[in-house]
């Protein structure tokens, strides 16, 4: 059993003072880098820390995706959580506003015993039997490739400037976690011990969880851990080229011209050493907590929460009783009805001043270039919509600038005493970003290249057609769809819909859509994203 008081730290192969980042204990996580073309002095500690955090998160998500088809395991998202994830620890599960998003999990650092009222003298402590066994021997490789080609023209008063940009980049992450162990609490013993116990409803963890209508308490009952030190390597290859053609009139005496082209290449290898006894994934049992502190283990389904509180006049919601179970991604959806429910959000965005719409569209397009940035923006907007003030200091500079720019645009669109309108506008933007976050990485990358007004308007017609589910054939002669006759544009649209489990079939000047089996929520989140972006055109 690992020491629960051990805090994993990271050791860089660098001259940067380690204690300034993570403290003095540095014998657990190890990171090394090689073949990096960039000047090491240009790399900030924040960038390194983010790289490590992203590598670990991607590693655990890939592992869970490959080994847990029932959806019981929760990947550990942060290195800082690994020392808190002990058996019988309390876990706070917070559901998002949008059903397609994965819940967030947080470990407050307390166990179930810590929040129980003292029992009768002589009561045995909470220590059910722990079963240990081998889980799986795991290794894997995953990554993606992207290609960008762009042309631009800039015309000024005294010069014509034309440029071309092109680039290819790929990422590959290799995992070699070796033999993993599983530790599991004897649930029957845990149930028998808990059935006559009462929670201390004045405990801070209970009080703070109870006021959030989307939060549920759970108990960690199973965890998957490494048995030996194991490496995770991340390989990034970036190749780009830039060309420029400049013609300028020089002081009325003639004309000078210059042509220039070049290429850039960046290779980066990062290796993360994960020590033995590191928690990679875990599972929990949710709790249903009554007003008097009695609680039940939800053994059959995820229907935890807090009992309703009855006032003198009515029942008031004091938990998540309106969300009694997790959404089944393959359950039937009336997409047309769902989009109609959200129409007020789209209308609100469409009536903003043209300049503000353009600014928001460009900011969202920039965010789509990095899937991690989409998740960061979603988290910040989620906190803002909850009335919280997110700490932007923890973000990377580019992410912080994007978030602040969006908030600035919102503030410029409303008056000083229009808090309700500001809240509605933030909710509308948060809806789009949440839908973006629900798309596949490949889908959101393709959509980022489809943000010109005519393409977005054509895509909007297609997603509305998909939502209606009529199966009718569309004519590419219609003005709104004419842009899809261009092979490159149609190829991008076909790829976008394909990543959302919708097939586009074109025959001469007609087009129809077909839904793949069990598409889940992907067609809906793609439709919401497209309609949201199109409302900013």
Secondary-structure map with pairings?
Layout: E1 10-12, H1 19-22, E2 29-34, H2 45-67, E3 74-75, E4 90-94, E5 104-106, E6 130-155, E7 159-185, H3 187-194, H4 204-210, E8 215-226, E9 230-250, E10 254-274, E11 279-289, E12 295-297, E13 305-306, E14 309-310, E15 315-316, H5 335-341, H6 343-350, H7 354-367, H8 371-385, H9 397-413, H10 419-438, H11 441-447, H12 453-468, E16 474-475, H13 487-498, E17 502-507, E18 510-515, H14 522-534
Parallel strand pairs: 1-2, 11-13
Antiparallel strand pairs: 2-10, 3-11, 4-5, 4-8, 6-7, 7-8, 7-9, 8-11, 9-10, 11-12, 14-15, 16-18, 17-18
Helix pairs in contact: 5-12, 6-10, 7-9, 8-10, 10-14, 11-13, 12-14
Q: How would you portray this structure in words?
A:
This protein starts with 9 loop residues before the first strand and ends with a helix. Residues 1-50, 146-166, 241-261 and 311-330 have low confidence and may be disordered. The longest helix is centred in the first third of the chain and has 23 residues, at 45-67. The protein folds into 2 domains: 10-140 and 163-237 and 261-297, no CATH class; 332-537, no CATH class. The chain is built from 14 helices and 18 strands. The protein is α+β, with helices and mostly antiparallel strands and 537 residues long.
Number of alpha- plus pi-helical segments: 14
Mean pLDDT: 75
Number of domains: 2
Q: What's the gyration radius in Å?
A: 27 Å
Q: What does the largest sheet look like?
A: 13 strands, mixed
Q: Uncertain runs with pLDDT below 50, 5 residues or more?
A: 1-50, 146-166, 241-261, 311-330
Number of E-type strands: 18
The helical percent reads: 25-40%
Span between N and C termini? Answer: 57 Å
Estimate the strand proportion. 25-35%
Which class best fits the helix and strand makeup?
Answer: alpha+beta
Query: What global shape is seen?
Result: globular
């Amino acid at each position: 059993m690992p020491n629960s008081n051990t805090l994993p730290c990271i050791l860089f192969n660098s001259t940067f003072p380690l204690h300034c980042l993570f403290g003095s204990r540095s014998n657990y996580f190890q990171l090394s880098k090689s073949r990096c073309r960039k000047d090491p002095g240009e790399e900030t500690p924040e960038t390194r820390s983010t790289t490590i955090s992203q590598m670990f998160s991607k590693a655990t998500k890939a592992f869970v995706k490959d080994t847990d088809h029932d959806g019981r395991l929760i990947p550990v998202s942060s290195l800082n959580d690994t020392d808190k994830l002990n058996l019988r620890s309390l876990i706070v599960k917070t559901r998002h506003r949008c059903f397609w998003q994965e819940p967030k999990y947080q470990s407050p650092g307390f166990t179930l015993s810590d929040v129980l009222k003292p029992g009768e003298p002589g009561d045995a402590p909470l220590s059910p039997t722990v079963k240990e066994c081998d889980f799986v021997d795991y290794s894997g490789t995953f990554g993606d490739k992207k290609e960008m080609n762009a042309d631009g023209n800039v015309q000024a008063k005294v010069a014509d400037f034309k440029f071309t940009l092109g680039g290819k980049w790929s990422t590959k992450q290799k995992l070699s976690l070796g033999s993993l162990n599983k530790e599991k609490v004897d649930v029957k013993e845990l149930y028998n011990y808990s059935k006559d116990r009462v929670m201390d409803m004045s405990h801070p963890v209970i009080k703070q969880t109870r006021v959030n209508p989307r939060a549920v308490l759970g108990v960690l009952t199973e965890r998957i851990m490494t048995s030996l030190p194991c490496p995770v390597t991340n390989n990034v290859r970036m190749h780009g080229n830039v060309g420029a053609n400049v013609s300028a009139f020089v002081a009325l005496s003639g004309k000078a011209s210059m042509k220039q082209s070049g290429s850039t290449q960046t290779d980066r290898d990062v290796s993360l050493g994960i020590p033995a006894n590191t928690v990679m994934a875990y599972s929990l049992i949710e709790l249903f907590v009554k007003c008097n502190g009695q609680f039940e283990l939800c053994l059959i389904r995820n229907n935890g929460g807090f009992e309703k509180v009855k006032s003198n006049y009515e029942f008031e919601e004091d938990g998540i009783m309106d969300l009694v179970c997790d959404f089944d991604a393959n359950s039937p959806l009336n997409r047309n009805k769902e989009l109609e429910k959200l129409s007020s959000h789209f209308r609100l965005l469409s009536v903003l001043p043209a300049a503000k719409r353009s600014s928001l569209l460009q900011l969202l397009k920039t965010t789509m270039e990095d899937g991690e940035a989409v998740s960061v923006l979603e988290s910040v907007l989620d906190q803002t919509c909850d009335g919280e003030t997110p700490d932007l200091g923890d973000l990377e500079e580019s992410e912080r600038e994007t978030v602040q720019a969006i908030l600035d645009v919102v503030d410029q669109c409303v008056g000083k005493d229009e808090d309700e309108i500001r809240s509605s506008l933030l909710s509308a933007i948060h809806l789009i970003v949440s839908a973006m976050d629900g798309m596949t990485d490949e889908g959101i990358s393709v959509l980022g290249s489809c943000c010109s007004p005519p393409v977005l308007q054509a895509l909007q017609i297609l997603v509305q057609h998909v939502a209606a589910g009529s199966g009718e054939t569309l004519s590419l002669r219609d003005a709104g769809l004419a842009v899809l006759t261009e092979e490159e544009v149609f190829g991008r649209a076909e790829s976008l819909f394909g990543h959302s489990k919708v097939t586009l079939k074109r025959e001469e000047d007609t087009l129809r859509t077909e839904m793949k089996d069990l598409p889940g929520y992907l067609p809906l989140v793609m439709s919401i994203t497209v309609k949201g972006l199109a409302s900013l055109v």
